[in-house]
Model the fold of this input.
Amino acid sequence: MFHDIPQNIMDRMKYLEQRDAADRLDGTTRMQRLRQITPEVGRFIALLAASAPDGNYIEIGTSAGYSTLWLALACRAVKRQITTFEILDEKAKLAKETFKVTGVNDVVNFIQADVLLHISRYKDIAFCFLDAEKEIYGQCYDEVIINMVTGGILVADNATSHEKELRPMLNQVLADDRVDALIVPIGSGELVCRKK
Ligand SMILES: C[S@@+](CC[C@H](N)C(=O)[O-])C[C@H]1O[C@@H](n2cnc3c(N)ncnc32)[C@H](O)[C@@H]1O
Done:
């Protein structure tokens, strides 16, 4: 996955990393910023996605498609596909551009919509990366876990950076006996759950 990343994917990742770094410095408003994961977290979720069982892969919160590119590498490695959701027009435009210039539409199904209107339709979920507004984490977790296959993996970003807002949801997940879960202190803190 990591040793032979196609040049067009490497180039787009680099471009988005630079744009995200600039956003964080130049006062771009929160809703306009790309708010991407770090490259280390990208590798981490790709490894987990490539280790997930057979089933549907979903991502909640595409932004410009940076994390999706890491997950696309995993999907290609294990011959799966991922559906990713983004609600905002401007981000959707960037994401479509990302998927077009990198040629990952063979493994990426992009849906521009509020994920909450669609998520309950997805059954047999094998992998989910949750990285959206923190207010919807609890509802997304509930909808995903109930439809997740045994051995399926859910990763949620910002478990340490937004620890205060997410504490009730984190407590619920860590006490949920349908999953084994822990928080991994890389990037913004990754909550990792494996469905039993
Ligand atoms: C932190 S950013 C995602 C970053 C991306 N995962 C990455 O690392 O490249 C969160 C994104 O979730 C989107 N989002 C928030 N609520 C959503 C919803 N209800 N449905 C779909 N997308 C949503 C936001 O518009 C934003 O672009």
